[in-house]
Design brief:
Helices cover 29% and strands 15% of the residues. By secondary structure, the chain is an alpha/beta fold. The N terminus is likely disordered. The two termini are 16 Å apart. InterPro entries: Alkaline_phosphatase, Alkaline_phosphatase_core_sf.
Length: 527
């Protein structure tokens, strides 16, 4: 199908201008700023690429970043900058091309990250809970994995001689990053200690081991290929690479015994022995010392488990880089390859903030991801780099009530023409943001780690918020249905794109189309 974007651009411009003129801007002071924003958006839309082939592709995945998360984060970022908020745009929301993706798994109406990311990376939808395997696999049954492996965009990029990278603020063995490189009948098999005995004896390999052995495993699957392995890997999850032995602890270990592996293998040492040109780092100082111009291979594991929430990074024992810092470093390293690169960047803790019922943490991590995207935009040539920004799924996160324009998005609902919080039928105030299910209300003051909620009993249903500061970092929104953690939701998620091939993003699409757009741009599969 050929797309004539030049023919469409005039109508698109007219539509955007008409939309801008139709807006009601509440104050004269807002006029200039608002129309400047509208003009910038129009210009971005008109800069749509007419090319389909890219040298580089960067895929950003905001784990759990549904449309309501985008809206709330957009408003929060605007309000943090001193504006009313609603008129603001996250960096990637000005990209010229947008579509909606249907996120269901083959066997699940509301999906999980393993099935959704496998779809994005392979072009094939699959079951919930399985990684890099098609729907013929039985979750948790090692014997069903062989013969059902799919090939991923990262693997194809390696075969084509491109540089490759995987970044996540979650454990690097977690479902989303793992789906770029691993094949596992269960997403939870992050190291050998997580696997049942029949899976180990049946020949299945844990996810951490697959990452370190990526190069020989890929060469064994496809006859005659010669790849050099993933060039940049950064994230959390150090425990899955270290033996269960205190002598193997990292200098900033938080636990008495940091490692989980029960096979006595130290995969970090194995990686260092395999790649003499590689640089392994575990803290901010080591990260800062990396000179991208002199680095061809980088492995960073910055936390025993997941990396910190963006709001909580200052509390890390030895310090860890932000998502935007990791993105910048990765692009600098991968850019050393004249053939181009494929990079996947996951903001994994958006999802975890929502699961914990903390809009503050989910939204601040979303804002940091928008900064990482902007960093990528500024570092790359739009004529040769396709940048895609999407989510694997959404959450049961709502924006409700009738708050007036500019009302603090984390605050209580204050209606149009009022200065005091609105009251529900029970006579108590309520917040704009809320969750359908989860652990429920928390008033933890200045706490910045959303996971603190898990040490407490559920607190569901209505609470009197009259004296509660709902904009504080430690506030967790009310939730109706009591669960051990808040759940994913099943509605469509947005895909934003710019660069060669992004013009294929139109309408409502199946999530696995993302792989085919990447393939179209990089020419990964020979025609």
């Amino acid at each position: 199908m050929k797309l004539n974007r030049i023919a469409l651009s005039g109508a698109l411009a007219a539509a955007i201008v008409a939309q801008a003129q139709a807006q009601v801007v509440p104050t004269s002071q807002m006029d200039n700023a608002w129309y400047t924003e509208a003009s910038a958006l129009l210009n971005a839309k008109l800069q749509a690429s007419t090319q389909f082939k890219a040298k580089n592709v960067i895929l950003f995945v905001g784990d759990g970043m549904g449309v309501s998360t985008l809206t709330a984060a957009r408003i929060l970022e605007g309000q943090l900058a001193g504006a009313m908020g609603e008129e603001h745009y996250l960096s990637f929301e000005t990209f010229p091309h947008t579509a909606l993706a249907k996120t269901y798994n083959v066997d699940a109406q509301t999906p999980d990250s393993a099935g959704t990311m496998t779809a994005m990376m392979s072009g094939l939808k699959t079951d919930a809970g399985v990684i890099g395997l098609d729907e013929d696999v039985v979750r948790g049954d090692c014997s069903t994995a062989a013969g059902n492996e799919v090939v991923t965009a990262l693997e194809l990029a390696e075969i084509r001689g491109l540089s490759t990278g995987v970044i996540s603020t979650a454990r690097i063995t977690h479902a989303t990053p793992a789906a770029t490189y691993a094949k596992s009948a269960d997403r939870n098999w992050e190291d050998i200690s997580d696997m049942p005995e029949d899976a180990v004896t049946g020949g299945c390999e844990d996810i951490a081991s697959q990452l370190v052995n990526f190069e020989p495993r890929l060469e064994a699957r496809f006859t005659g290929i010669d790849v050099d392995g993933i060039d940049v890997v950064m994230g959390g999850g150090r425990r899955h690479f270290l033996p269960k032995d205190a002598t193997a602890n990292s200098a900033d270990a938080a636990s008495e015994i940091e490692g989980d592996r029960t096979d006595e293998r130290n995969l970090i040492a194995e990686w260092q022995a395999m790649y003499s040109d590689g640089h392994y780092v575990f803290d901010q100082a080591g990260f800062d010392a990396i000179d991208p111009a002199e680095t061809t291979r980088l492995f960073g594991l910055f936390n025993e488990s997941h990396m910190q929430y963006e709001a909580d990074r200052d509390n890390d024992i030895a310090g860890e880089p932000s998502l935007s810092q990791m993105t910048e470093k990765a692009i600098d390293v991968l850019g050393n390859n004249d053939k181009g690169f494929f990079l996947m960047v996951e903001s994994g803790r958006i999802d975890h903030g929502h699961h914990a019922g903390s809009a503050y943490n989910a939204l601040t991590d979303t804002i940091e991801m928008a900064k990482a995207v902007q960093q990528a935009v500024e570092m790359t040539d739009p004529n040769e780099t396709l940048i895609l920004v999407t989510a694997d799924h959404s959450h049961v996160f709502t924006i409700a009530g009738y708050p007036k324009r500019g009302n603090p998005i984390l605050g209580k609902v204050v209606g149009v023409g009022n200065d005091e919080p609105a009251e529900a039928a029970d006579g108590m105030p309520y917040t704009t943001l809320g969750y359908t299910n989860g652990k429920g209300f928390r008033d933890l003051g200045t706490e910045t780690n959303a996971d603190a909620t898990y040490s407490l009993d559920n607190s569901n249903g209505r609470q009197d918020l009259t004296t509660v500061d709902t904009t504080s970092t430690g506030y967790h929104q009310e939730a109706l249905i009591p669960l051990g953690s808040e759940t994913h939701a099943g509605e469509d998620v947005a895909i934003h794109g710019k660069g060669p091939g992004a013009q294929l993003l139109q309408g409502v699409v199946e999530q696995n189309i993302i792989f085919h757009i990447i393939n179209q741009s990089l020419g990964l599969v020979a025609e």
